[in-house]
């Protein structure tokens, strides 16, 4: 039988101001099994204060099979109830949840009553309380207005006068709730209400309800993003990824963008119902005239104009079939870093909206890699936490990396990229470690702290230790998790009011929770995932009254898993930190007002560890798997900065590495039977244009390995696929060819002469013909076992994504503008080329078209003989003078007559690969005793190549310009 009281104080009268009604309502909602509310008006500002506890109550009913009956009655009196609030009420989902609206017509309706009942599982009456007074549901009425409200409690026995009066209150509510004028709330009712609504311009006399008719406007970052989204659509893009740091308003951005596009039907997809609920409320506030509903669990509101769907429900093939592919003209996929899961892919591959927006808060290219491919490699807009801090959307942070000397992490078992949970629990729940944490917390904490723990047991232990240590000072801590007696929403309210100083949690606050009052974050657990680290950091960065900055106390131990802190915090080198004795003061990379302080012992450990680490391709694969939480796709490996030449040298190909690491029979069969195709036809495919990758993607979409398409169908499909990449289409097609229609004979001829010709072996005498043009159909020149075709198909797509990502990056580098355009003093202007290929082209033709110039402060150089170009790749990253990808190189043109002796020099060389395409390398030229020349890379992962007559030197390296 339940024993939890529905009340938190003895006084029966609540007067408002410093005695608000809100905490009492939240407590009662958290512990009631029946809730009955009847109020004259509801405003979004007040409802937003109650919704978190109402949602938690509904979640408990579903997940823990708890009792809950919720009935809410409001009115259209004077049209004060806001449509936004009505949309939010309509989304409350549950078998025993009813919301009605009392149509007043010419009558007044001044009820303000809140009734709560708590019963046991047998439904025998146990406890009850009612609040009757002057409080409508608005922020002012529930918090700081002078409002009187009298509490009336049920008292046993059931035939007592108090019990009879309480029953009478409920009976009167039931009469109103079943009155003919009380109509169920529906989207249609709200639509009609919006059309006839004419609310008063001022607050109602004698009532503290302030009308929430404020206009919602985008912040500075959202405005920039909206302009970028309009621009990308103008260029023809139908998908795009937006990266915005936690707290910068991703969900609001998607709502603003859907509205500026005037989308008729909107689909919002996420993996957690909490995120869907927040999105529902956001869209309803901005767009209350549109109907909205859910698609998850038992709720399937298929006809709503705005649908908020869980990926687990909508991603099932049988559910997707209920919608036409073009049913939604605007789709949002939130927390898009989850999007590589199969259910997400089902949704992305099925729908064809006018525009699809991917949203993520993760700033890392490693984590963005695969999702960027899903958005056609179109990164529309990116603003990380630093941008948010600089634009004053977020507060700055003061980060303290503290040496966790109370735990020897080397002794804790490490499996599959994670510490053993039981061993962590045992090591963390010690008085010694608690004292170490409290010492640093006491020295640096502010007023409201959120602490992330490794387990429920750890959170309970830390709260108990804190309360023991600080009880005499009047400080209090709470442990908050799914099994704690205090609900999450109630704990946050207590923290906000200063009744509690520290909340110890596990993962309830990682994602999708708004905690603006938090000003101190304690990281008491290892965070192997960079995404989780960013989410936890972001919990405290939202702006709040009197909050100047966030303090972050992060306890770092002696294990390589903690090296990710450097990457996430943007610390390029531990050498920088050691020069400052562990302190990195505010800098442009950190954001205005931020600083990082790393314990010197941590710096020493990092430096020693970095000396020992030189990973094999297998170890890089394992580390990335642990980091991502799944087997990395090729594009993710590429974005992580890893080298495919090392993969090829150590394992033969990417497919063979995957087969080795996955221990999967299908991958092994794929490697045994088709490794040559995957390596030579796709992974090492040379691309002077994007056409080969586009053709393969079109071939997959036509299910070509099962049903070979006609060349007409393939060329038309390729046209449509290429149109998804407007930047590549513009770069690789002449203006005349861009105007060709998909089904035109001219386009067919062009496509036959280019990528189709290349794949049937027409471009080179040496290359394999991977396909045959047989009777007008393009079919593979090899056989794939029918059972293997799905895996074959997926792996072709994986490598096509890799090639398109590489090629897109290359094209973007070409168009990246130079920051410096004019020479000053004695500087010399030299031609600048984004890479060696373009430089060689200009050198051979003598053309100066589209050449940019960059000033350089050096003597004995001239524009006639010298030029600047960017290094591409990692082949020269090694030895005493490594050349990094993207380094600026000073080179000197050479001719056969002016080259002189080239032995021992680093030269730019033009060669022809196996497919007949030109490639451009930077290599050291060496000569052996037999007079044979060799081209040697400084990076030992790259093979030394014998020189032959087809190779041409066109420039010698003079210097690497360190910018």
TrEMBL record:
Residue ranges crossing the lipid bilayer per the database entry: none
Keyword ATP-binding in annotation: yes
Molecular functions (GO terms): ATP binding; ATP hydrolysis activity; DNA binding; helicase activity
The Helicase C-terminal domain, residue ranges: 433-585
Domain Helicase ATP-binding: 231-381
Domain of life: Bacteria
UniProt organism field: Vibrio mytili
Pfam families xrefs: Helicase_C, Peptidase_S24, PLDc_2, ResIII
SUPFAM superfamilies cross-referenced by the UniProt entry: LexA/Signal peptidase, P-loop containing nucleoside triphosphate hydrolases, Phospholipase D/nuclease
Keyword Hydrolase attached: yes
Keywords: ATP-binding, Helicase, Hydrolase, Nucleotide-binding
Descriptive protein name: DEAD/DEAH box helicase
């Amino acid at each position: 039988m339940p024993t939890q009281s529905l009340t938190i104080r003895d006084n029966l009268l609540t007067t408002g101001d410093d005695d608000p009604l809100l905490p009492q309502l939240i407590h009662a909602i958290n512990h009631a099994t029946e809730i009955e509310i009847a109020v004259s008006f509801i405003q979004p500002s007040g409802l937003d204060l109650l919704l978190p506890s109402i949602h938690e109550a509904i979640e408990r009913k579903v997940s823990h099979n708890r009792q809950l009956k919720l009935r809410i009655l409001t009115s259209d009196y004077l049209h004060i109830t806001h449509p936004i609030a009505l949309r939010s009420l309509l989304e409350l989902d549950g078998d025993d949840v009813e919301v009605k609206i009392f149509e007043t017509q010419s009558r007044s309706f001044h009820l303000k009553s809140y009734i709560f009942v708590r019963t046991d599982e047998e439904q025998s009456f146990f406890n009850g309380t009612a609040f009757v007074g002057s409080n409508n549901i608005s922020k002012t009425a529930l918090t700081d207005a002078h409002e009187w409200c009298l509490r009336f409690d049920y008292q046993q026995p059931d035939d007592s006068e108090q019990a009879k009066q309480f029953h009478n209150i409920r009976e009167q509510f039931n009469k109103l709730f079943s009155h003919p004028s009380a109509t169920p709330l529906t989207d249609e009712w709200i639509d009609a209400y919006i059309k006839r609504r004419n609310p008063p311009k001022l607050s109602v006399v004698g009532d503290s309800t302030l009308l929430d008719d404020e206009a919602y406007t985008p912040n500075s970052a959202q405005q920039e993003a909206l302009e970028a989204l309009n621009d990308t659509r103008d260029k023809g893009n139908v998908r795009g990824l937006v990266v915005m740091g936690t707290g910068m308003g991703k969900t609001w951005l998607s709502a603003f963008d859907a509205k500026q596009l005037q989308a008729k039907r909107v689909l919002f997809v996420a993996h957690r119902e909490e995120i869907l609920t927040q999105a529902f409320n956001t869209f309803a506030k901005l767009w209350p005239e549109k109907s909205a509903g859910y698609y998850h669990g038992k709720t399937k509101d298929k006809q709503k104009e705005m649908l908020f769907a869980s990926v687990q429900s909508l991603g099932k093939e049988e559910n997707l079939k209920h919608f036409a592919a073009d049913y939604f003209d605007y789709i949002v996929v939130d927390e898009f870093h989850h999007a590589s899961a199969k259910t997400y892919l089902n949704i992305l591959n099925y729908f064809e909206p006018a525009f699809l927006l991917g949203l993520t808060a993760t700033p890392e290219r490693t984590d963005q890699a695969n999702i960027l491919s899903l958005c056609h490699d179109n990164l529309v807009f990116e603003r990380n936490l630093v941008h948010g801090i600089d634009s004053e959307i977020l507060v700055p942070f003061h980060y303290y990396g503290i040496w966790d000397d109370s735990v020897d992490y080397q002794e804790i078992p490490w499996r599959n990229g994670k510490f053993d949970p039981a061993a962590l629990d045992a090591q963390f729940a010690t008085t010694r470690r608690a004292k170490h944490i409290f010492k640093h917390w006491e020295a640096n904490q502010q007023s409201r702290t959120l602490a992330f723990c490794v387990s429920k047991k750890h959170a309970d232990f830390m709260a108990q230790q804190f309360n023991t240590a600080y009880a005499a000072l009047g400080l209090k801590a709470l442990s908050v998790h799914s099994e704690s007696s205090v609900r999450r929403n109630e704990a946050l309210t207590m923290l906000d009011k200063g009744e509690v100083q520290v909340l110890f949690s596990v993962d309830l606050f990682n994602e999708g929770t708004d905690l603006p009052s938090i000003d101190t974050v304690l990281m008491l657990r290892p965070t192997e995932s960079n995404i989780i680290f960013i989410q936890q950091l972001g919990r405290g960065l939202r702006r709040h009254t009197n909050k100047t900055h966030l303090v972050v106390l992060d306890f770092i131990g002696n294990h390589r898993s903690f090296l990710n802190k450097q990457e996430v915090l943007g610390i390029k080198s531990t050498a920088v930190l050691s020069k400052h004795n562990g302190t990195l003061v505010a800098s442009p990379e950190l954001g205005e007002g931020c600083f990082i302080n790393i314990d010197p012992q941590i710096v020493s450990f990092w430096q020693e560890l970095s000396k020992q680490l030189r990973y094999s391709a297998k170890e890089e694969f394992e580390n990335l798997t642990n980091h991502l939480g799944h087997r990395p796709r090729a594009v993710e490996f590429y974005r992580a900065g890893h080298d495919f030449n090392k993969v090829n040298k150590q394992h033969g190909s990417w497919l063979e590495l995957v087969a080795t690491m996955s221990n999967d029979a299908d991958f092994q069969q794929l490697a045994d039977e088709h490794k040559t195709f995957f390596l030579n036809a796709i992974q090492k495919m040379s691309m002077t244009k994007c056409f080969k990758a586009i053709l393969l993607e079109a071939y997959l979409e036509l299910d070509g390995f099962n049903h070979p398409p006609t060349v007409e169908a393939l060329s038309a499909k390729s046209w449509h696929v290429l149109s998804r990449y407007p930047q590549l289409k513009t770069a690789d097609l002449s203006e005349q060819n861009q105007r060709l229609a998909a089904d035109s004979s001219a386009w067919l001829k062009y496509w036959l002469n280019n990528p189709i010709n290349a794949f049937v072996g027409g471009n080179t005498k040496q290359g394999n013909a991977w396909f045959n043009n047989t009777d007008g159909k393009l079919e593979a020149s090899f056989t794939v076992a029918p059972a293997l075709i799905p895996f074959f198909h997926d792996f072709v797509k994986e490598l096509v994504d890799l090639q398109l990502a590489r090629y897109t990056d290359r094209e973007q580098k070409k168009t990246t503008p130079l920051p410096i355009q004019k020479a000053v003093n004695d500087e010399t202007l030299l031609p600048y080329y984004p890479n060696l290929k373009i430089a060689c082209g200009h050198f051979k033709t003598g053309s100066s078209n589209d050449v940019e110039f960059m000033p350089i402060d050096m003597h004995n150089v001239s524009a006639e003989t010298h030029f600047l170009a960017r290094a591409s790749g990692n082949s020269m990253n090694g030895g005493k003078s490594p050349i990094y990808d993207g380094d600026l190189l000073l080179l000197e043109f050479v001719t056969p007559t002016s080259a002189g002796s080239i032995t021992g020099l680093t030269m730019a060389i033009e060669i022809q690969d196996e497919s007949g395409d030109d490639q451009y390398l930077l290599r050291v030229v060496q000569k052996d005793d037999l007079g044979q020349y060799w081209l040697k890379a400084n990076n030992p992962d790259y093979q030394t190549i014998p020189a032959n007559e087809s190779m041409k030197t066109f420039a010698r390296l003079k210097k690497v310009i360190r910018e």
